[in-house]
Design goal:
The chain is α/β, with parallel strands linked by helices. Among the domains are: 43 residues, no CATH class; 192 residues, von Willebrand factor, type A domain (Rossmann fold). Helices cover 41% and strands 11% of the residues. The chain contains 23 helices and 11 strands. The protein has a 6-stranded mixed beta sheet with strand order 8-7-6-9-10-11. Strands 1-3-2 form a 3-stranded mixed beta sheet. The protein is flat, with a radius of gyration of 35 Å.
Length: 593
């Protein structure tokens, strides 16, 4: 056996694969339409397209197929252009098809891979490859088995050692395509592996038209084999053609757990759709249990995006998470009555002069002046005016927002922070209504970040709100003081909103200049002109006498309310902040949706 040539692809190989592209499209349907593939002559060129580690990949963002022809030549696959490109087309046409479905599949698989959740992308790739290859081998008569056999040769060296996972995977193909045992498998096949391979082949056939449901069941089947090996993704990297498929994609609709995630997943051995016996199915559901809650936490949301190939920081993912979660609670887009068209009103008569339009002569007025009209002398015309008919739009208050990020508050990038969610609801509603927002996140001394004044950039606001300090508690009095400096008053009124707990009373301390926080707060309320609100995590009965003992922060809050006019809302459960944010937004910025 000769060693495959290694090196950049020549023009002949590029043209050969370009000619194979229409045949690959026809393997699915004569009506399949995708733009031409990126045929990269070198691995370096393929890397610039985002392809690394494998010889082919898909990009769901722009529906592209990328081929590394240098790697293709290195593995001796030059003659399989139709098969390889038809396989990649299958990822666009069949599974996963869209970025959202790819994320959904990964989310379902993650739920059944305890301790090896990071392998969800690998499992999803192996599973969708099975669905695509089985269809191409049997229905399109393409040589998919020959590709695996070529890569199993020593020259190809695609898999240097036959792990049990790889043996199971190849044995499933042998069952699907009725190949002799050992045609693709190079390792040992015991009775357990043989039974699992038969179940896997049965699963691919039964769920061929419902591959999304079959994905999690396939994951439960290969879970023991994942637990046996070490870092299987590195060993099988050459097969990961969907590893970066969703780079640049962040579709909506991933916050909610789907029914199958909540209700648990059957192992294929107990799946009545495969065995026809549903006697033990209820026991398995009870053993697996149900997921708690219906919305994903930020860390899980981020893990799904990263598994699909999205390259975003935890902070950027948190921004997207809280934006999507806040959207159902925002006020409706503002509307205003359509002004009536102005109507002309007659004001009087003026001389008609030669050169004016003839049809503008008012003959009744002209003949009233003289029965013998003299053009330019006795001729007159009417004059009209239009009264403006405009409807004034409401003038929304700007929002000065302060959110507590001390150690008593959750990290919004890891777990759901209702402070962040409520702040996002109010801020996005304000901007939707036409207001500007200044957002400030604070914790201890010198632990404060904020927007550059009042802005209308939602990304800048969310970037501030989704940050986290987790330090001590010291309200940034200087920020409030400088914002509402009486020497530089703002032209637009604003409402001051603070979301915190009893640590907000640190705003009544003295600032670094020795100014009393009480004076700063009172001056800010007066300069803002739109009032002030505090949404605080307090006991419901915080105003009762038993809470007014010496050293308690509650007497300070009563004083702030009674003497300065702060509107204080006690929130006994952080989850109630969502209802508060909806009501606050509806009151100040319009009706809720």
């Amino acid at each position: 056996m000769t060693t495959p040539r290694v090196g950049p692809a020549d023009a002949a190989l590029v043209e050969c694969w370009r000619a194979a592209w229409p045949l690959a499209l026809d393997a699915w349907s004569r009506y399949t339409r995708l733009h031409d593939p990126r045929l990269c002559a070198t691995t370096v060129a393929a890397a610039k397209e985002g392809l690394q580690g494998s010889f082919a990949m898909i990009r769901l963002l722009d529906q592209s197929v990328v081929i590394d022809l240098e790697s293709v030549r290195a593995h001796g696959l030059e003659d399989y252009g139709v098969e390889i490109m038809a396989h990649e087309i299958g990822h666009h046409v069949l599974a996963p098809g869209t970025a959202l479905d790819h994320f959904r599949l990964i989310a379902r698989i993650r739920r059944v891979l305890p301790s090896v959740e990071d392998d969800a992308a690998l499992v999803a790739n192996l599973y969708t490859d099975l669905c695509i290859n089985d269809r191409l081998q049997r229905q399109a008569n393409l040589r998919m088995a020959a590709i695996y056999r070529t890569l199993a040769r020593p020259a190809g060296a695609a898999v240097k050692e036959s792990t049990r996972l790889w043996c199971l995977y190849m044995r499933i193909y042998e069952h699907l395509w009725q190949l002799d045992k050992g045609y693709l498998v190079t390792g040992k096949i015991d009775d357990v592996l043989e039974a699992d391979a038969w179940l896997g082949a049965r699963l691919i056939r039964v769920y061929a038209s419902d591959w999304m449901t079959g994905g999690a069941r396939f994951a439960t089947l290969i879970l023991p084999y994942l637990l046996e090996g070490k870092d299987p993704a590195k060993r099988l990297r050459i097969w990961l053609d969907t590893g970066s498929a969703c780079q640049g994609c962040t579709p909506d609709g991933l916050l909610d757990h789907e029914n199958e995630e909540r209700d648990g997943v059957l192992h294929p051995l107990y799946d009545p759709a495969l065995s026809g016996d549903d006697a033990r199915a209820p026991q398995v559901l009870e053993r697996i249990g149900r997921a708690k809650g219906q919305l994903r936490e930020p860390f899980e949301f981020g893990a799904i995006l990263k598994a699909g190939g999205v390259n975003l920081s935890d902070h950027a993912i948190a921004m997207r998470y809280y934006r999507e979660r806040a959207l159902p609670h925002l006020v409706a887009f503002p509307t205003r009555p359509q002004p009536r068209a102005p109507e002309p009103e007659m004001e009087g008569l003026e001389p008609w002069e030669i050169g004016d339009p003839l049809d503008s002569i008012d003959w009744l007025g002209t003949l009233a002046l003289s029965p013998r009209p003299v053009p330019g002398v006795t001729t007159v015309r009417r004059t009209f005016s239009e009264q403006p008919s405009s409807t004034h739009a409401p003038f929304p208050l700007d929002l000065d927002l302060y959110v507590d990020s001390s150690g008593s508050m959750p990290n919004p990038q890891v777990a759901t922070s209702y402070l962040t969610l409520a702040a996002a609801i109010v801020a996005l509603s304000a901007m939707r209504a036409g207001a500007s927002v200044q957002a400030t996140l604070w914790s201890g001394v010198r632990q404060v970040i904020g927007t550059q004044g009042f802005v209308r950039d939602s990304d800048e606001v969310l970037r501030v709100l989704t940050g986290y300090f987790g330090g001590a508690t010291a309200f940034p009095i200087h920020r409030l003081r400088d914002t509402w400096d009486a020497a530089a008053p703002r032209k637009r009124a604003a409402h001051i909103l603070m979301i915190s707990d009893d640590g907000i009373t640190t705003m009544f301390d003295s600032d670094e200049q020795g100014n009393s926080g009480w004076d700063v707060g009172a001056a800010a309320l007066k300069s803002a002109g739109g009032g002030g609100t505090m949404a605080l995590n307090l006991p419901v009965l915080w105003e009762q006498e038993q809470y007014q003992c010496k050293g308690s922060p509650y007497p300070l809050l009563r004083r702030a309310r009674d003497s300065q006019g702060w509107d204080i809302h006690a929130i006994s459960d952080m989850a109630q902040l969502v209802a508060f944010a909806r009501a606050f937004s509806a009151l100040h910025y319009g009706k809720p949706r």
